[in-house]
Amino acid sequence: MTAASKRVVVTRRIFPELVADLKREFDVVDNEKDIGWNPSELAAALKDADGALITAGERVDDTLLEQCERLKIVANVAVGYNNIDVDACTRHGVLATNTPDVLNEATADHAWALLLAAARRVGESERWLRTGQWQRWAFEMFPGAEISGTTLGVLGLGRIGRAIARRASGFAMKVIYHNRSRLAPDDEGGARYVDFETLLRESDHLVLVLPYSAAVHHIIGAAQLSQMKPSATLVNIARGGVVDDSALVEALRTRQIAAAGLDVFENEPKLNPDLLKLDNIVLTPHIASSTRATRTAMALLAIANVRAALAGERPPSLLNPDALAQRR
C-alpha cells in the first residue's frame, strides 16, 4: 500500500494549509463542518482509516477500536489524553500519541492571563464599565489582590507547571508546589515542595496543571476550598473534573475564596450555568494553547506522529511503546 492510498481522518477542522499538505501524502477525510461526531459517527468515519488526528472531544476505547480494524494510530492534537484509553489501544495494536512540549509557553501565558484578570478583577470591572455604571472615580473602586511578593502555588509541577513558576520570578513571588512525588532539586527551579494541605493553606494564588485521571477527579472540592485563604485566587488550566465546579460556585458565591479563573470545565462545552452568575470569576473556552504558532506546532507534531506510524516507524511522542510489538 502506497502512502497516498492510506487514509487519514482529521476529526475536527484544523488550519487549511496543514490539511492541504496532508492531502499530498494521504487520502484525507477531514471534518470541514467542524461539528463534533458522536461515537457512531466517529466509528463510521474511522472504519476504513489507517490513521486519525483527533482532539480531546473524541473518545477512543475498546468499543471504537473493535470497529476500526485498519486503524494503526490515533494522534491526539493535545498534550492531555484522558479521552484515549491507552491500554485499549495497546491491546488492539494501535499507537497512541499526544503533543507535549510545543504548547508549554502559550499555556503558561494563559494561566497568568487568568490569574491576573481574576485577582485584579479585570472581567468584573470591565463589565461594570461597559454597562455605563462608571460615573465617577472612587478611591475604593474594585480593590483586587496583590500579585507581587505573594505566594504562588502550583499543583502539578510538570513541563507547563515549571513554565508558570518561572514567570513568577518577575513578580518576586515565592513558589510552592505539590506533586505525587517530589521532583529532583535540579528540576524544581527554586520552587519549594509542600504537602497538599500546606499548598492549599499557604497559596495566595493556586494554579492547577495536573493531568486528569480518575484518581484526581474533584481533587479540588468543598473540603479543599475551605482550606484556602479567603483572599485566594484559583486557576484551572488542567482539565474539567479536576475541580468540583458546583463546590467552586458555592465557594465563590460565599466568598470562601476571592476569585477564580477557569479555562476548562466539567462536561464542557456545557458548563455549570451558575458559573455565569458570578462576578468574581474569569472564564475562557478551553483556549490556553490557542496561539496561531502553538496550534500550528501541535498539529504538525500530530501529523509527524501519523506520518511516522504509517511509514512503519516509531512516532516522536508515542504514549504506548508496548503497542509496537503487536501493531497492525
Protein architecture, described:
The chain has two domains: 3-100 and 291-326, 3-Layer(aba) Sandwich (Rossmann fold); 104-283, 3-Layer(aba) Sandwich (Rossmann fold), CATH 3.40.50.720. It is 31% helix and 14% strand. The chain contains twelve helices and twelve strands. It has helices at residues 16-23, 39-46, 62-65, 86-91, 104-119, 122-130, 159-167, 185-188, 196-202, 222-225, 245-253, 292-310, and strands at 7-10, 27-30, 51-54, 73-76, 95-97, 151-155, 174-178, 192-193, 205-208, 233-236, 259-262, 281-283. The protein has a seven-stranded parallel β-sheet with strand order 8-7-6-9-10-11-12, sandwiched between helices. The chain has a five-stranded parallel β-sheet with strand order 2-1-3-4-5. The two termini are 14 Å apart.
Low-confidence blocks of residues: none
Order of helices and strands: EHEHEHEHEHHEHEHEHEHEHEEH
Superfamily (CATH H level) name of the largest domain: NAD(P)-binding Rossmann-like Domain
Tell me the Rg in angstroms: 22 Å
What can be said about the biggest beta sheet? Answer: 7 strands, parallel
* Class from secondary-structure proportions: alpha/beta
> N-to-C terminal Cα separation, in Å?
14 Å
The name of the CATH architecture of the largest domain is 3-Layer(aba) Sandwich
Helix content: 25-40%
Q: Give the count of helical stretches.
A: 12
Instruction: Look at the structure and give the mean pLDDT.
Output: 96
Number of domains: 2
Helix and strand arrangement:
Layout: E1 7-10, H1 16-23, E2 27-30, H2 39-46, E3 51-54, H3 62-65, E4 73-76, H4 86-91, E5 95-97, H5 104-119, H6 122-130, E6 151-155, H7 159-167, E7 174-178, H8 185-188, E8 192-193, H9 196-202, E9 205-208, H10 222-225, E10 233-236, H11 245-253, E11 259-262, E12 281-283, H12 292-310
Parallel strand pairs: 1-2, 1-3, 3-4, 4-5, 6-7, 6-9, 7-8, 9-10, 10-11, 11-12
